[in-house]
Amino acid sequence: MKTLQIGELRIDVLSETEHCYMPVSFLFNDLTREDMARNSDWLDSAFLDPSGWQIGIAFQAYVIRTGGLTILVDSCNGNHKQRPTALWQDNLRSTAFLENLSGLGLQPEDIDIVLCTHLHCDHVGWNTRLENGRWIPTFPNARHIFNRDEYDHYFSRYEKEGSSVNHGAFADSVLPVVEAGMADFVAKDHTVLSGTGGEVSLSPSPGHSYGHVCIHARADNEEALVVGDALHHPIQLDMPKLRMRADLNPEQAIETRSRLMAHCADQGAWLLAGHIPHHSIAQLVRYEDRFRLAHQN
Ligand SMILES: [Zn+2]
What pLDDT score does 296 carry? Predict the structure, then answer.
C-alpha cells in the first residue's frame, strides 16, 4: 500500500530506496539464526536473508496533503553527502527521490512544511542539495519544523565535536536551512495544523535519539502514525526488546517501541514505518505476547 486516505488527509509513501540489504550487524547485534528461523514463516527473504546474514530495509519519506498544505515527513539520505562513516549512504547519486516526488504531482517548490522525526542522517538528507559547492535548501518555500530538544542536543554536540556529528548530516543538512532562516523550533507535543481537514501533530517518542518525535495525522476518527526510527524492521514486532545498535538509550527505546506498537494494534492506528519495505503503510495485530503485520497473521 502506497497511499492512505483518511478523511481529507492524503498520505503517500515517497521512496528514495524501496528495498536494499544491509548486514544484520548494522542494525541488530543480538539477532540470532534461531530468531530468523522462528520468523521465517511470516518474513520472507526480502526481510530476513540468513544465507547472506543480511536484512532487508528501505529509505522512505511520507507526503501528507490536506487543505491545500503539503507536508514532507523525513527526507531520507539525500545526494552527494559525504558519509565515510556510513557507507550505505555515502555520496549517493540517486534520481529516485525527486522523480518519485514528481510522480506524486509535486515539485520541491510545492512543499510547505518539512517535518523530521529526528535528525539522523537518513532522515534529513534531502533538506539540502549541492549547488555550486554549497548546500542549499531543496524545498525553497518550506518551513522546516524541528523539535527543539533534538536540535539543541545536536547543536551542543556540534559545538564540541564539529561537523562529524551525525556522520556530517547536522552540518550539511540541518544547519543550512537554519542559517537560511527557514527553520522553526517547537515543543515535542506541537500541533502543526488542525481544522476541518484533519490534524497533524507531534508526540515525544524518545530513546532512539534524545528528542525523537512521532508524527500523528488524524481525520474522521482515523489515525496514522509516522514512527521514524522507533521501529526499523518487522522482526521487532516479534522481538520488541531487540536492541537496535544506534538507539541512544536502549531501555527507553524499547519502552517507546512497545508503547507505539500497542497503540497501533489496540487503537487501529495505521503504522507508517519508512524503513520497512513493501509494508510502509500497515496495520498491526497482537499475536500471543507480541505483534504481527495485520494481513500476514
Ligand atoms: Zn535514526
Answer: 53
